[in-house]
Design goal:
Length: about 290
């Protein structure tokens, strides 16, 4: 019974040594040696030590991109390389743009955090929604130095282009300090986070009220190589951004003489005028009334 009691106490001691806070570096050896106090058959207090046990920390891959869109209750998560079905998600307000002019360039900002305990390389791809109203053109992926730490690209902040619809970024391991080390460019030692901005152009002539969605998809090369099958570790694709084109009703009208004036022989002439009317806006115009006072 005394020995059994000692074994139970030893188990409790081992359990107490299993917790460790923060992110532990890959390859680190963690040693454990437990002690147990007990009373022997002679009533004497004794202490015994266990054999030493060592464990090696293995790579643990994890990353995150913010801001995320919110999947509606009726919507489901999309497969890698797909945008959630239209109506199945609500984009984050940071990346929801309304009243965008046709022909203008818009921007969507993100932050990529490497939460792993090892360096990792991330493949980025901008996927366009095949079920929305139009496709963006001129897509470019940049990293930027977020000088005011608001997570959003502001004009004048340093930019570094990484690619068009695809890019590859390298980040260091999470240092476990609870504060992300943010870099403007990839591959900088000690940086476990990077700010990203996607620029995209709304095609000229896009009708007002049309909506387009794009998704910044990231895949972990490290998790892929390691054979990880957890989709939450391999990739992230719930980063949909949305833009709605502003309705701009514009009408153009011009008046000109059509042909040569006709001499009526009585000192008067007959002149024919032609009115040219064109819808120069991006929405249909109804009930248009034209008045000419000559």
């Amino acid at each position: 019974l005394q020995r059994l009691t000692a074994a139970i106490e030893l188990g409790a001691i081992e359990q107490a040594h299993h917790g460790s806070g923060g992110v532990v570096a890959i390859g680190r050896l963690i040693g454990h040696k437990a002690s147990a106090d007990f009373i022997d058959s002679g009533g004497n207090g004794q202490t015994t030590l266990s054999n030493p046990v060592e464990v090696v920390v293995l790579p643990v891959y994890s990353f995150n991109i913010e801001p995320d869109n919110t999947l509606n209750p009726t919507g489901g998560a999309a497969n890698n390389g797909e945008v959630p079905n239209a109506g199945a998600f609500t984009p984050d307000p940071t990346n929801t743009l309304t009243d965008v002019d046709a022909g203008s360039t818009v921007q969507f900002s993100y932050t990529l955090d490497n939460d792993a305990n090892i360096n990792d390389v991330f493949d980025l791809e901008v996927i366009q929604d095949p079920n929305d109203d139009f496709d963006f053109t001129g897509i470019q992926i940049y990293t930027f130095d977020d000088l005011d730490n608001d997570g959003v690209y502001d004009p004048g902040e340093p930019l570094s282009i990484q690619g068009n619809t695809t890019a590859t970024l390298s980040l260091g391991p999470d240092d476990g300090a609870g504060v992300e080390d943010v870099c403007a460019g990839p591959g900088l030692a000690g940086n476990d986070s990077v700010n990203i901005v996607v620029f995209a152009t709304v095609p000229p002539g896009t009708p007002g009220g049309d909506v387009a969605n794009l998704d910044l998809v990231a895949t972990s090369q490290g998790a892929t190589t390691a054979g990880d099958t957890d989709p939450n570790v391999l990739y992230e694709n719930n980063n949909v951004a949305q833009a709605t084109v502003r309705e701009s009703p514009v009408i153009g009208i011009a008046k000109r003489v059509n042909g040569t004036p006709t001499n009526n022989g009585n000192g008067t002439y007959t002149v024919t005028y032609e009115l040219l009317i064109e819808n120069l806006g991006n929405v249909d115009l109804e009930d248009v009334t034209i008045t000419d006072d000559l």
